[in-house]
Amino acid sequence: MINELPPKLLKPTFFEPQMAFLSLTKLMNKKFLAILFTALVSIGARAQQNTGFRPGSIISPQVNEGNTVTFRLKAPVAKFVTVKGDWEADGGKGAMTKDANGVWSFTTGGLPSDMYLYTFNVDSVQLLDPTNAFVVRDVGNLFSVFFTNKGNGDYYSVKEVPHGSVSRSWYTSATFNTSRRMTVYTPPGYEESKTSYPVLYLLHGSGGDEEAWVSLGAVPRIMDNLIAEGKAEPMIVVMPNGNPSKQAAPGETKENLAYRPVMSNTLPGYKEGSYELSFKEIVDFVDKRYRTQAKKSKRAVAGLSMGGFHSLFISANHPDMFDYIGLFSPGINFKTVNMTIPAYNNLEEKLALQMKKGFQLYWMGVGTTDGLYDPLQDYKKRLDHLRFPYKYVESTRGHIWSNWRSYLLQFTPLLFKK
Amino acid sequence: MINELPPKLLKPTFFEPQMAFLSLTKLMNKKFLAILFTALVSIGARAQQNTGFRPGSIISPQVNEGNTVTFRLKAPVAKFVTVKGDWEADGGKGAMTKDANGVWSFTTGGLPSDMYLYTFNVDSVQLLDPTNAFVVRDVGNLFSVFFTNKGNGDYYSVKEVPHGSVSRSWYTSATFNTSRRMTVYTPPGYEESKTSYPVLYLLHGSGGDEEAWVSLGAVPRIMDNLIAEGKAEPMIVVMPNGNPSKQAAPGETKENLAYRPVMSNTLPGYKEGSYELSFKEIVDFVDKRYRTQAKKSKRAVAGLSMGGFHSLFISANHPDMFDYIGLFSPGINFKTVNMTIPAYNNLEEKLALQMKKGFQLYWMGVGTTDGLYDPLQDYKKRLDHLRFPYKYVESTRGHIWSNWRSYLLQFTPLLFKK
């Protein structure tokens, strides 16, 4: 049942300073020839598992004064090397130049303070920065990560402030007849206190899952830092998986590697309403498991892109549940959705009821170059027609994590003030 | 304080099917020329952030019948491409061959069922498999991951069984005068039950931190699967950070990117005894925060390499604390340690007292090709001399995660049976 691996040729292993010392003392004893032989055999065969790791001399990325950033990659044989990132200065990419040691480098212009993702491309093969241990996944791509400081990026970085806990937990969904995964941030002091906390439900987009707001959205750091500065109330942040046909993020389901990450709109259950109509399952689970202030005035729901669409319809269908609603670049082009199904039909009536029952904040943000800019303008007109109150924020740029992190920085300080 | 990014050229963005539809309807309206112009400008400049992601047609890795594994990489310009992994069949590496489409491939021999790490090398540049979204970090290197089944690998994979929760939490250390991070696995049903649980403290090696046993050690899956089969008692597994000079794993401290991962033996506090002597801080925190069975008969401590060294001296210095001790390839070459300091001195006396006070299991395992094989034989002689009872397991291979995961599979079913 629990297998052992088959026997193989003995190989000596040198991997810590004391081991080198040990091997020297061994040279004097009777095992000398056997060790020398197997050492020679093992050269080039396989190092012990990453033991003896030492970081190389190449520093990349290097954030300079003024938030210019220098990238370096050793690739002596390569013909053409570029770096590509999600900044706009330099068009987000740069052709690197090679020095006499085969090290390619490129320095950006000054970058606004933010969290950035990037990859290298060597002779048309994309790769991460091998000298940067920090990586995030976005849908099915991996990216190297860095921060620039003196601005938003400071909120996305770890500071010396009290840290909340981050938990991956499973809840049982009667609607989907399975267990499903969520990520939950509890604020610093949660476990020691007897206090009950308000809850922000924070929903991912169609490229995401219950990991996205943590890795790409920097939620634990944003919350730690805003709470430490007194800018946001201590709150629980619940990040559920919003793909009805998936229990959890790629790699966290029984499909293992066979679950190749895709966009939600290629999955069953996409914008079919079951997630929105069953959201009370999640709220009930959270209210049972955590010390929450289980009432409308202490609940918020917000999401990006598809999660903005979800937030709109979750709140519209549950007018007694949330006093704070946030739509970040919401994916609300209703022309592509079956608006006759129960979750989405009679929207004007639902909004009228939501307005009548009241709420504290209906916050909407979008970038001026976002392809979803126009649908949000259409939605604003519908709200205006209903005299439905909202706060609207326009930012630069498009459908990007830089905007969603920034919206979260703006949104959370407005929550639970009453 | 919370900055906005500077305004930039408007760029239209097409990233979901409904957006393509939207853009077509737009072609008929007055914005036609402006959109066409900016669309042309944006071509090749920067895609919207990973939206519209579709997995490519290349499948890699592909686990075949008989656990042979095929790797594929598109690199049409490359001269020489290899794959290198932590298996022994094929020497752990293979030269890949290119087909007419510029796709390089290599198929291993049949691999024992396990979790494997690998990288590609393209013209002397190391990279992850760009078609594999699953990655782990070991010290400062990233590796792509896969599983082979019908054996140990089944325990390292996600199965359709109840899942425990995994939490990253911070505790306050009076000894180190700071907050420190730990990862905690609570078994399925923990939150719903009123039961108290036994606790396994599981310690990392000198290449690791509080993430290592989760990512490289597959602890949540091993525990879920063993518990589901009734092979292990439901238990809490606590994985603290064992580097006294570091609060947390790389990227989780205020040093952010400046904390380049290194081996523990290059950090202050390495084998200076403060961690071992202050371990009660961690136990007290866990007993306070979690529903534990706070007694010796329901506590275990185990660790790999440096963590095995830690486990030896934590248990020897706290003879009333643990009934189960596990030393996995322990880093116990005492010649390289200052054995006169309080944590490490009088070892024979401490072991004699530990034996007198009693325990259920003292488990030791090592690979026959591990550089730490001989020091463990020396330690066994000392234990024999004291008539100190232990269970000793020898495996093939060396100082590798394959062994540590396998030892955990063997060790946990022996715990808390009384």
Q: What attributes characterize this protein structure?
A:
alpha/beta, Immunoglobulin-like, 2 domains, 6-stranded antiparallel β-sheet, 18 strands, globular, disordered N terminus
What does the model show?
The structure is a homodimer of 418-residue chains. Chain A is an alpha/beta fold and 418 residues long. Chain A has 2 domains: 62-150, Immunoglobulins (Immunoglobulin-like); 155-414, Alpha/Beta hydrolase fold, catalytic domain (Rossmann fold, 3-Layer(aba) Sandwich). Chain A has helices at 17-26, 32-42, 152-156, 212-215, 219-228, 274-277, 279-289, 306-317, 347-357, 373-385, 401-411; strands spanning 62-63, 69-74, 81-85, 93-95, 97-98, 103-107, 115-122, 125-127, 135-138, 141-147, 165-173, 178-186, 199-203, 236-240, 299-304, 324-328, 361-367, 391-395. An 8-stranded mixed beta sheet of chain A has the order 11-12-14-13-15-16-17-18, sandwiched between helices. Chain A is globular. At the A-B interface, helix 1, strand 8, strand 9, strand 10 and strand 11 of A face helix 1, strand 8, strand 9, strand 10 and strand 11 of B. Strand 11 (165-173) of chain A pairs antiparallel with strand 11 (165-173) of chain B.
